[in-house]
Amino acid sequence: MNIKKAGRLAAVIFLFVCSFYAGTIAAALHKDSPFPPSVTASADGNWGLSFQSEGKPPVANASADELKQYNACYADMTDEKIIYLTFDAGYENGNTEKILDALKKHSVPAAFFIVGNYLESSPELVKRMLREGHIVANHTYHHPDMSKIASVDAFQKELSDLETRFHELTGEIMPKYYRPPQGKYSTENLRMAKELGYRTYFWSLAYVDWYQDKQPTREVAFKKLLGRIHPGAIVLLHSTSSTNAEILDELLTSWEDMGYRFGSVSDLPR
Question: What amino acid positions are annotated as catalytic residues?
Answer without folding.
Answer: 88, 238
